Amino acid sequence: MAFTAQALVGSSFVAAVTLDDYPVAAGQAGRYALAALVMLAIAGFRFPRLTRPDILPLLGLTITGLALFNALMIVAVEASDPAAVGVIVGCVPVLLALLGPLQRGARPLPRVVGAGVVVAVGAALVQWTGEGLSTVGFLCALGALACEAAFTLLAVPLLPRLGPLGITQWATALVVPMLVAWALVVDGPGAQRLPHLDEALALLWLTVAVTAVAFLCWYGAVQRIGPERAGLFSGVLPISAAAIGAMTGSVELTPVRVAGAVAVAVGVTLGMLAARRPGAGTPATGTVPM
Fold it and tell me: Closest by alpha carbon to 142, among 186, 187, 185, 79?
């Protein structure tokens, strides 16, 4: 499930190229509005009821993992090389390997943390182009990294009651007014327009595959194997993007990129094996206080 989620997110590479001339903020608002409708239909046009302890983690997840993450990434890639930004954000497996166990009062497993480092290095090799980061790009990339981790960690206490479907429903619905306001400020009231056919197809792919299906798969994986092990599969994202780029002729498959992909595979395998060692413990998702 985690592999599928990250592979689908990596496929957004093609959609992003197609939407190059479409207003970014408006596109994000439309994407999540459509995703919210899709999730509502899947749930039988009913929202799960929220309790008071659900509200802050859910709002935090939505603001950081969706709204703020998108804003920081846009600023970061405009200020620096996108691949360099991706290297920073690609450190999320290490962050989740450290913070996932701490969140539930356990010690991080050194072998899982080490596997996260291997995955992060492999992902960096896949996407690194040799370009540097500006100060603004670096700071925004660090902020996006924190938001990416929050998107997973803040969901952990919500999963036992709301499940992957309930969290995805609420998150996609709550982020829409935030993104609409952002679109009006960033793009301006007159910038919104109906997408052309190819743009509409790209937005549809982002809505169904990269948002609805990927979110359900990701939170399902976090619920089953815990955030630290699920986080290892974040290294699949740049591999998926590079593979699709190679097929479309926009990315060259160099020996360094291939070595990076192999490193990601090794890191994921080592991390999964380390987490299954006798006495290593199983990540719990039902008793995490917030």
Answer: 79
- For 55, 64, 109, 239, the CA distances from 100, given in Å and listed in that order, are 21, 17, 10, 24
- Neighbour-count burial of 271, counting CB atoms closer than 10 A to its CB (0-12 exposed, 13-18 middle, 19+ buried): buried
Enumerate long-range contacts of 252-258, CB under 8 Å, 24 or more apart: 256/125, 256/128, 257/125, 257/126
Distances (CA, A) of 237 to 8, 22, 44: 8, 23, 31
pLDDT digits (tens, 9 = 90+) for 40-98: 999 999 999 999 999 999 999 999 999 999 889 988 988 888 888 899 999 999 999 99
Distance separating alpha carbons of residues 26 and 286, to the nearest angstrom: 37
pLDDT of residue 276: 63
The pTM assigned to this predicted structure is 0.91
Decide: 126 and 260 in contact? Cβ < 8 Å: yes
Tokens of 37: 């409708």
Q: Please check whether residue 238 is in contact with residue 123, taking contact to mean a CB–CB distance below 8 angstroms.
A: yes
- Provide the total of helices (H) and of strands (E) in the chain, helices listed first: 15, 0
Map residue 73 onto helix, strand or coil. Answer: helix
C-alpha to C-alpha distance for 5 and 231, rounded to whole angstroms: 11
For 5-15, write each residue's pLDDT tens digit: 999 998 887 78
pLDDT in tens, 133-166: 889 999 999 999 999 999 999 999 999 999 999 9
The Cα 44–Cα 113 span in angstroms is 40
What's the rounded Cα separation, in Å, for the pair 29 and 64? 15
